[in-house]
Specification:
379 residues, 78% helix, mainly alpha
């Protein structure tokens, strides 16, 4: 962490990233409302998070002003580095307050193995595609995490452990946003065409096939509004939360794969246990336990942690688990955008895009097949 004496050096970059994060939130809301209107849907959960909007704003600013102000990047660099490191970790920790472990149990003995199977499919397919197409191991691991677990959040959680740089993170976030939005737009109609009257199958498909949590919610709410099935929204939400819970295992697992490869190089040291299980993931897990215990207390007719009402608990978890977490992650992603030149992204070529598309298609088809096979058991 930085000392107070470092604040003047950090302030320009950190202030710029935070400022863009604050702009990204209302801009994302406006864009989301516009998307819903274009689709003829009533206002509902925002299908577009402030987090990818923040990285786009950062890219726009630095690639527009960076040429005119050549010293801008140097002035911003210390604060941006702090934001992408510490604000990112804080955001991932706070997201733990959104996850109630009891939600995982609600999908039952059938749902959990299905989710685990689809997550493994996403992880394996993305890595194999990356090797086949010739994409770097880091980009392949980011594609695996983002497709299999929870989109942008998984990307940010895995990136430090595999030493991914800003352009790799930015490219992966772009992939998640693009293919997740396409799924959000087209999958509800596909789910209804194939699984009308079968909410278990439709909910499983939507909750397992789309990348980011906000995109899953957008698709499931669209399904409810257009086709009038509340149960699909409930099942899709629980399936997605179950995927998110596996973040605790996937982050150290992918870190281990990456570090193992490096340890095989001559003179390299074996990775430490701490590097395989990042401390911020422990924070995520701890706050998930806090959320679970609080929700359990309310479910027993008492108070959350014996001190607060249901309304107060909802407000607390929303403030930290949603609003503060989104602000922290948006600040980190704005920092990524402000640190990335578009020329470096173009240098990666279209191969990472092909990996993202192939992984999204594989998981989508896998979710479709399992939904058709056993989805009715979840309804």
């Amino acid at each position: 962490m930085s000392r107070p004496a470092d604040l003047p050096r950090l302030a320009p970059g950190l202030g710029a990233a935070l400022g863009l994060a604050l702009v990204a939130a209302p801009l994302a809301s406006w864009l989301s409302a516009s998307l819903l209107r274009l689709g003829g849907l009533p206002a509902g959960a925002s299908p577009l998070s402030a987090i990818p909007v923040a990285v786009l704003l950062g890219l726009l600013v630095i690639n527009t002003l960076g040429g005119a102000l050549p010293k801008l990047s140097l002035v911003l660099a210390p604060g941006l580095e702090w934001a992408t490191k510490y604000a990112l970790r804080l955001g991932v920790i706070l997201i733990g307050l959104k996850l109630n472990a009891l939600d995982v149990l609600r999908v039952g003995a059938l749902g959990v193995p299905v989710v685990v199977t689809l997550v493994l499919l996403g992880l394996v397919s993305a890595r194999l595609l990356a090797r086949w197409i010739g994409v770097s191991e880091r980009l392949g691991l980011l594609a695996a995490a983002s497709t299999a677990i929870c989109g942008v959040t998984a990307t940010l959680a895995v990136a430090p452990g595999i030493e991914a740089d800003e352009r790799e993170v930015a490219y992966t976030v772009a992939n998640v946003t693009l293919f997740g939005l396409l799924g959000m737009v087209f999958y509800p109609a596909l789910a209804h065409a194939l699984f009308a009257g079968n909410p278990g199958a439709a909910g499983l498909f939507l909750g397992a096939a789309i990348h980011d949590t906000s995109q899953v919610m957008g698709a499931a709410i669209a399904y409810r509004e257009v086709y009038g099935d509340e149960r699909v929204l409930q099942i899709a939400t629980v399936i997605k939360l179950t995927r998110n819970a596996l973040l605790v295992l996937v982050v150290p697992g992918l870190t281990w794969l990456y570090q193992r490869g490096r340890a095989q190089a001559p003179g390299a040291k074996s990775p430490s246990l701490l590097s395989l299980f990042p401390t911020f993931v422990l924070g995520f897990l701890l706050l998930s336990v806090v959320r679970t215990v609080g929700d359990w207390g309310l479910s027993q007719g008492g108070l959350a942690w014996g001190v607060t009402s249901a309304e107060g608990w909802r407000g607390f978890t929303k403030l930290l688990g949603e609003q503060a977490a989104t602000l922290a992650l948006s600040t980190a992603l704005a920092g990524v955008g402000l640190s990335t030149r578009l020329g470096t992204l173009s240098g990666l070529g279209l191969r990472p895009l092909a990996v993202g598309f192939g992984a999204a298609l594989t998981v989508g088809l896998g979710a479709l097949g399992l939904a058709a096979w056993i989805g009715a058991g979840l309804g």
